[in-house]
UniProtKB/TrEMBL annotation:
Family: Belongs to the OSBP family.
Organism of origin: Alca torda
Coiled coil: 399-433
Keyword Coiled coil (UniProt): yes
Protein name, as recorded: Oxysterol-binding protein
Gene Ontology biological process terms from the UniProt entry: lipid transport
Keywords from the UniProt entry: Coiled coil, Lipid transport, Lipid-binding, Transport
GO cellular component: cytosol; perinuclear endoplasmic reticulum; plasma membrane
Amino acid sequence: TGFDSDNSSGDFSEANHKVAEMLDLDPHQSSRTGEHNGETEIQENGIKRHRTSLPAPMFSRSDFSVWSILKKCIGLELSKITMPIVFNEPLSFLQRITEYMEHIYLINKACSHADPLERMQAVAAFAVSAVASQWERTGKPFNPLLGETYELTREDLGFRFISEQVSHHPPISAFYSEGLNKDFIFHGSIYPKLKFWGKSIEAEPRGTITLELLKHNEAYTWTNPTCCVHNVIIGKLWLEQYGTVEIVNHSTGDKCVLNFKPCGLFGKELHRVEGYIQDKNRKKLCVIYGKWTECLWCTDPTTYETYKKNEKRGGEQKKLKPSEEVIKSENDEADDMPEVQDTVQFIPGSKLLWRINCRPPNSSQMYNFTSFAVSLNELEKGMEAILAPTDCRLRPDIRNMENGNMDVASKEKERLEEKQRAARKERAKDEVEWQTRWFHQGTNPYTGTSDWLYSGGYFDRNFSDCPDIY
């Protein structure tokens, strides 16, 4: 989550063979040794080794206080607040959105299932996995400049992805992804609504996410849960996801309702997800439970209800080990971070739908990035000649922060903000409206709501009319 100045680069707002060979990392290959500064090694089997660490470790935030900035801004719009670059992570919000694709195998699994219930289970797991990378990610991504783009082609994972910052006020990021085997289309637009509650910052998601399984002629839509960052005044920053997510299959009428539970006073419900899949007649077909930071399971409704009844009656249940229980110091305040071991209480007979990938051992020194996230800003030799000039990898402030040059990064950020301000004033003077390049505003064909739709043509690589934003 993030926020920035009204005069800055925006508010918070997440296959060409030649290009495919130059882009990104397999998240399951966390043991690979990668490159720094441009050279990427080739494995014997021809698969490229991508970097598994950043060029420079994370800059310490211990000497900086978010509250020292926010206390002057209570009652103001968060879009008016400028945050020091030290509170950022070296990724654009467009690159953060791309992390939805880290668990793309769940889309592939949905495509392979003949049973619509199993397809919905896989789609539900994918929707939960999309927010899993945010766990412990308390740094804010850079706000995209108007017209900024990001592309990612992964032949090993079978997809390509393009996103664009299509609006500055309100800040809107649009994205489109498709399977290289023409088996799915995944697209949407995101424009979170930020609220500052004094001790916490809440990002309420806006915008529709759509997944189309082309082989089955099915379309699913949903909206992400609310994300909240706690302890912005004092203490260790921590975040939670909460709210109801409804995934609708517009072809069958099936619906999956997932409840991301709020933490609660003692942290008992922290990270928990619970819900069910129902058919068009509202008959419950299965129950889903787990944690968005760990794993997701499903079982039939009868087994689940029987288990819960026995639990309430004090029947024999799987006992949690001491390390799995909620540990809370007597000196902890209610808004402090609950220390909870992420272990889901397993119901016998359940089926595993998804489990989170392990993070690299040095993740804490890399903004708590996943292996997938570590590679997103990797700029290899020769890539500049292929990418659109608006691609995130070419942003000098993000690049310098990644390399540990914080002073230069801060100055570059200010320069880009000034450049964007000047361009906006020039357009206003000439009464010229901003024209998006790769997306256009339209109507979602399944929900009937306003949406940003991909116009096509990006991978033809005609970038002659791209704006000069860097």
